[in-house]
Amino acid sequence: MSMQGRIGHARGSIMKRALGVQAALEWAFRVEQAQLELPVRRGIDEEGFGFGMEYVLIQRARLGCKVDGGQHKMGSYTHADAEIIAATVAGMPDSLGGIRMAISVAEMARAGITPDWMPGVVPRCVAVETKQNQHGERANTIVVGIERVKTRGKWRTVEVLACPVTWRPHPEQIASARRGYDDWWQALDWVRDGLLVGGMLREVEVMATMPKVKPWLSGRHKPTMGAPTFP
Length: 231
Known about the structure:
The protein is α+β, with helices and mostly antiparallel strands. It folds into 2 domains: 9-118 and 171-221, no CATH class; 124-168, no CATH class. Helix 1 packs across helix 3. The chain is 32% helix and 19% strand. The protein contains 5 helices and 10 strands. The chain is rod-shaped. The chain has a two-stranded antiparallel ribbon with strand order 1-2. It has a two-stranded parallel ribbon with strand order 3-10. Strands 4-9 form a two-stranded antiparallel ribbon. It has helices spanning 21-31, 53-63, 80-90, 98-111, 171-198, and strands at 9-10, 13-14, 17-19, 124-127, 130-133, 136-139, 142-151, 154-162, 165-168, 204-206.
């Protein structure tokens, strides 16, 4: 069913639109253009569903019984379910990144993107610096010592040269990107659970479907033999 398709009615009851949590977020923030309203924390030590599910209930009460009762889109309305989704995201707990993660989840949904976990990227050992001459590109070397060697019956002093190397991209860059994806996945899992527990969506049904967990561990993206692996 199209994300923007009409929601049908059967025997007087609403036929809900079934969406995975990522699709639901994209519908709310990208299609309905819901805005993220970040409330003031009640207490720094409180956990559970972040700012408390009562905040979401207040949002629902503010919206009343209108199906399309939003206030943010110019010339049109924001669907009430989209407002509830946005309010749930706004309650992201500090343990999952709090306001910073809430904003990140909303903006990625608005752009319709998934965090870049650097698929297929493998660190390569390369020279730190290179130079170009008539023979092509050459790695820069540095003097790391002095040795005396005997050649053709004579002792000579020679420089011991080495080529400094590094990993590009650095393994920590890849690991950081994948931690970012994992943090985003955990945040979506929390939003999904919050919407399911809250049970306040009228015309959208959030399904159990989730983006792939640690997709870099799937067979299609296994690193080449001998390459570093990342959690």
